Hints:
With 378 residues, the protein is of the alpha/beta class.
Amino acid sequence: MKQIQCKAYNVTEDIVGKITFNKHLLFQRSNYILVGEGITCAHKGFAATVTTAEQIKEVGNPICVIENAKEFNEGDVIVINKFGEIAFVYEISSKHNAIMATERCNHRCIMCPQPPILQEKDKTPFNLHLITLFDKGTREIGITGGEPTLIGDNLFLLIKQIQKHLPKTAISILSNGVKFADKEYAMKLAKCFHHDLQIDIPLFSDIAEEHNRIVGAKTFYKTVQGLYNLALFHQRIGLRIVVHKQTYKRLPQFADYIYHNFPFVSQVAFMQMETIGLAKENIAELWIDPYDYNEQLREAVLLLADRGMKPYIYNAQLCILPEDIRCYAQQSISNWKDIYLPECEGCTLRGQCAGFFASNREMHSQYIKKIEECMSCD
Ligand code: SF4
C-alpha cells in the first residue's frame, strides 16, 4: 500500500481515520482525519489533523505535518503511527482495495512477494472497524493475506461486515484453498450468501510434487479437494498461476488438466511474477524473461479459450505478448505500485497496458518496445 512520511506530534498509538477536507464537519468527527493546507493547530473532535503549515501550535491533540496535501483524497482511509508513517489502507480512486486478514500463512511459496510472519495480534477487530470507514460506492474489496482462512470463522465475520456496511460491494478472496478441504468450512462460506463473491486460488502445476515444492508444503490434494468442495457449494472460483522458470514449461499440459478437472472455475489467470520478497531472494531459480515463455503461455491461453473457458493474463506488458492473446491481458497492477518505463514514452497502448510493478523496474523483459500503431487481437 502507498506510504508517506510526516512529522507526527501527540501520536502515541496507531490512529485510523477517513480523510476529509471539511473542517466544518459536524458528525462522527472521531472517525475522520482532517487534512488542510495551512491549518496551524489540531481541530477538536477529529481523530487527527494533517497540515502543510510550517509553524503549528501544539494543544495536545494528534497533528501531522506533511509537505503537500496532494497525496490525499476525500474518502481515503489512512493509518498514522507514532513514527509518522502514514499508510493508505484504502484509496477512494483505486480499484484494488483490500483488507489484510492476517500476515500468517501455511504455505511458503518460493516467489511470495510478501513473506509471511509467524505471530501477530489478531487483526479482525481493526478490520471490522476499517470496513465501516470505506466508501459505500466501493466496487470491490479484496480479502487477502497471508492466508485469510487462518483466521478461521472470523473470515465470515469480515464478509458479513462488508455485506452490512457495503451492501453493493463485490468481494474477492485470495486463498490457497487448503482450508476448504474441510467441507464444513466451505459450507460456512456458502452460507454467507454473498451476492458477488469470488475466491481466487493459486495452483502451480498439474503434478502434485511440483506444486508442493513451489508452495513449500504437501498440500496439493488438499487444495484440489478445496476446489471441489467450493464447487459443490456453488462458489465462484478463479485459478491463479504465477508464471516463472519453474512453471512455464508445462503451461499447455496444465491448462489441459484444468479443463478436464476443474471445468467449473469461472476464470484462469496467468500472472507475471512480482520480483520482491522471496521472489527476489530466489530470483536465480525463478527468473525467465516473460517474452521467452510466450509460446507456452499462448498455447495454454488459447487452449482454454477455444474450449469455452475464461483465461486472463495479469501483470503483462502488451508489447511483448503475441498479438492474438493481447486481448486476454488485464490492468491488474494496483495503482500505487504501477509504473511505466522510459521505453513506454509515446506508446499507443499505454492506456490499456498493465505496465510494470514498481519493484520490477530493474527486472523486466528485454523486449519492451513502444507500439506506434494500435493493433487489436481479434
Ligand atoms: S511500451 Fe510500455 S506501455 Fe507500451 S505496451 Fe510495452 S510496456 Fe506497455
